[in-house]
Amino acid sequence: MKLNKNDPRLTAYAFGELPEKEAREIEIVLAESVEAQQAIAETRALGAALARGLAGEPVPDGQAINAAIQARLNAAEGAQSAPCLDPDLVVRSGAFAEGSAEAERGAPWSTHPAGRAVSERGWVPRGVLGLRRWRLAWPAWLGLAAAASVLFFVSGWLWIEQPWRAGTLLARREASDVQAPPRPAAAAPSLTEARPITTNAASESAPIVEPVPAAARPLAEPLATRTTEQLQEVQLSPAPEVRDAADALSRSPAPPPELITRYGLGPVHVEPQAGNLSSALGEPQPTPAGVVLQEEFAGTLASADAAPEGQTTVMSRELTVRYGLALMPSQGEGLVRLEREHRRSPPALGDIPWVSPLFKSSSTRESANPGYVDVGENPFQPASTEPLSTFSLDVDTGSYANVRRFLNSGARPPREAVRLEEMINYFPYNYAPPRADEVFGVQIEVSGCPWEPRHRLVRIAIKARDAGGKRPPSNFVFLVDVSGSMEPSERLPLLKQALKALVKRMTSTDRVALVTYASSAGLRLESTSCEQKEKILETIDSLEAGGSTNGEGGIRQAYEVATQHFIPAGVNRVLLCTDGDFNVGLSNQDELVRLIEGKARSGVFLTTLGVGTENFKDALMRRLADRGNGTYHYLDSFEEAQRVLIEQMDATFVTVARDAKAQVEFNPAKVGAWRLLGYEKRLMAPQEFNDDTRDAGEIGAGQAVTMLYEIAAPDVEVRGRVDGLKYQRPVDPAPPPQRLVSSDELLTLKLRYQRPEGSKSTLMEIPVVDEGRSPGACSADFRFAAAVASFGMLLRDSTHRGNTTFDSVFELAQQGLGNDPGGWRAEFLTLVRKAQRLSARPQGAPFPTPSSSGFE
Amino acid sequence: MNDPEAKSEWVRAALERHGGALTRYAASITGDPDTARDVVQETFVRLCDEPPARLNGCLSEWLFTVCRNRALDVRRKQQRMMPLADIELAAEPDADPSPASVAEQTDTSALALRLLRTLPLNQQEVIRLKFQAGLSYEEISRVTTLSVSNVGFLLHTALKTLRARMMKALWGPGDETE
């Protein structure tokens, strides 16, 4: 098939509007044509930009409408008799004849189209609240919005500074240089009020402003006028990191000069002014009435505070100035979170982006979604002072499915969506099952590290007992989000298919109930024995999307039903199926999590099934599942749903161990430094290992957990080793912290878990000796796991990726293909190639000249 | 749904979810936020008389249809403009950018929005229905009484033009923001 740029099907495909068959055809062309992929990505990005822009348009006062509706409803309540027609309303709404006649015929409303909802803002945009009562006329609104964006432009500019050190300045434009337009007369009152903020920001940041050559003004200059030379003139003050960054940039093969010229790209990080921010974080500043920006910002700060402790929510670091500013007025989250990220860890060189001008394709938009939480990356730890590695054994696999979705849709996943352990644990491995009387079988392999020849890689494979072909009777409550955002075909329709497939596999001893939630929660189907499968299937079929999302109400009700029909020694589960966009009820994440935590004590566990892309709250879904003693799965396709719900039904629903934790003790005589790949979100304090009250991971029947440790012998350098201390000198010879016990062992693995019914925990201990196996002698599973890990590191632009390339990943995975029953490993190979193609070409670049592929 | 409380909750949820988009949409037709507000108010008052069950799954479509009909009606009475479909040619982009447009250029989406206003009105309308109201092609088709393929064509053309104009506005030759 040939596709033309002018074919409307391209746009329809981009927004999920094509029937399946046609979509497949387009996909075939897409697979071969990077330009077509690009067109799709840009169209989606433009759609998102439009949706954002349109959502930010001012809305006139909603109070009057509210009041009118209230009056209407009250009237209806008062007179319970037939349609109460207010004469005034009859007159005023007489012109609805067309609409109402159509509505009465019912024809236009009879079908339920599958479409794609665009996320919407609420009734009145945050930030406009303070202004609402002014009831400005339309032109005044526009003027005000313009003035506001100028202000933001100015103050946003003042926030652009080198993140790592005060006084370090990448490039700065003085505020006075900004092309401030003449003040629109209509907006004058608000400007007067708003001015203190600008001055404030300016004065706070003034001391660190350094004059810069005019050529180094990356921002307000029209992009087209900038040249490579100008970029290189960007003045860097002498902070070593920055110099390195500049070096790296000039050495980086990435942006070809002509692209820089065209796009005006520069390694500029967007960063809020630190002082400004911390004062705002400490105590919310009073919001001067009428200041749009301030209100917007305060609101965002509140949400940042609500983020769970220790977690850092970031927008993608891949922000250009242009894009960063683009996001500021509507999505101030980025400011705060970016700041936090940088505080945590200086960006790696590889992170410095040069990004497309217009929009950084869909991935930037999605990574700007605060639903992603960057887990960072475990650094190397010295075994002498940090000999213990403790973490919880969760085996979520959502990240891989999510990464796959990104790659299949032609975008590189944002790095925070890439979690190594979830990718590694996605695949089935050929691990030996445990002995009859044990819950876990453990297999440990030590071999050369594929991406760093001087290091060793330890693979710890844990295999849980399987259900032995017998699944205990199950009591399932499907809790399905049927809010408006669930309407697109990859959301509710996909879930309906998935749940039906699950029900078809259930037996007469199982029970299913169905609770839905949208604006209000409702019990759609009482707990019903699976002898009446038809009835269950029909109810699932009847689900339709519409309304806002009261997740909390639904969760309460679902647990209630599950408790009522509790099956002792059975599987009692709530399956929460949602795109995670809770916007009514308990939307505060912490409260929601506490609610789940309380409910989990009843013995009813929670599995979360995530769908969708735009509103998808990845982090929340995972957190809920963790606290609800269950697992989280991301369903990007029906195939994935089948894998999770059917093929791995036992692993998904039958828990064989609760609160499973692992602790590894390294022998400093053999290990100089170690690094755990992934599990960043699962780390625990060493003392928590023996504390049975600490919640940890749940392991399903037959499930396999793989951990990889990269270790360096005591005499081998590792990346990221800390400099010697300035104020402390090592005593020579340095006394060991404790007397070393002579041992040939490399490490000892300890596992602790409870039985599902809850009891005292059981401890397993396995010592490991490195037999010096060469890289060539390792198993296929070892190679494959290492390939997945290194792929994840590439996608994350990890500093630890060593000599990994997409080609080396591909080769390693190919060697590790082994027996691949489900074809999952083969699919991985295709993803590696896709990622390679995406990386080879700058995202967001305009169409290259038509190629020989099917797209012209 | 006989329970008045549930009914009122339903209407309120609809207002919360769609009120903003409806008002902006209505304003884009009537050209005036005050009449737009009236139109939306009347739309929701009408909604109070609808049995929720009948609108299950097609609420937004219903709201936009009623709102559109009412807004067009208001506009006809005001005799301000020609009907949407009659206007084929775009207003030309501002030759001399207003202060507002300069400021907006700091923001991709604001730029997109500004350029959106240079598209033919019927294209603007489908863009609004798609990206502001979040309606599907089919829903837009029923709201606007255009065929689905026509909607697809309009959207595709609109987005393609916008993409090209954005590129041009950002770094193309003869940059008007220079």
Write the layout of secondary structure elements.
The complex is a heterodimer of chains A (about 850) and B (about 180).
Chain A: H1 8-14, H2 20-32, H3 34-55, H4 63-78, H5 87-93, H6 97-105, H7 129-132, H8 138-158, H9 188-205, H10 228-232, H11 240-251, H12 257-263, H13 274-282, H14 292-306, E1 312-313, H15 321-327, H16 333-344, H17 361-367, E2 373-374, E3 381-382, E4 388-392, H18 398-408, H19 420-424, E5 440-448, E6 456-464, E7 474-481, H20 492-505, E8 511-517, E9 521-529, H21 533-541, H22 551-564, E10 571-578, H23 589-600, E11 605-610, H24 618-627, E12 632-634, H25 638-647, H26 649-653, E13 655-666, E14 673-676, E15 697-700, E16 704-712, E17 747-754, E18 762-768, H27 780-796, H28 806-815, H29 824-840
Parallel strand pairs in A: 7-8, 7-10, 10-11, 11-12
Antiparallel strand pairs in A: 1-2, 3-14, 4-13, 5-6, 6-16, 8-9, 13-15, 13-17, 14-16, 17-18
Chain B: H1 4-30, H2 33-47, H3 52-55, H4 59-78, H5 99-104, H6 108-116, H7 121-132, H8 137-144, H9 148-171
Give a verbal description of the structure.
The complex is a heterodimer of chains A (856) and B (178). With 856 residues, chain A is an alpha+beta fold. Helix content of chain A is 38%, strand content 13%. Chain A is built from 29 helices and 18 strands. Chain A has a 6-stranded mixed sheet, with helices on both faces. In chain A, α1 crosses α3 and α20 runs antiparallel to α21. Chain A starts with 7 loop residues before the first helix and ends in a 16-residue tail after the last helix. Chain B has 178 residues and is mostly helical. In chain B, α1 packs across α4 and α7 packs across α9. Chain B is elongated, with a radius of gyration of 18 Å. The termini of chain B are far apart.
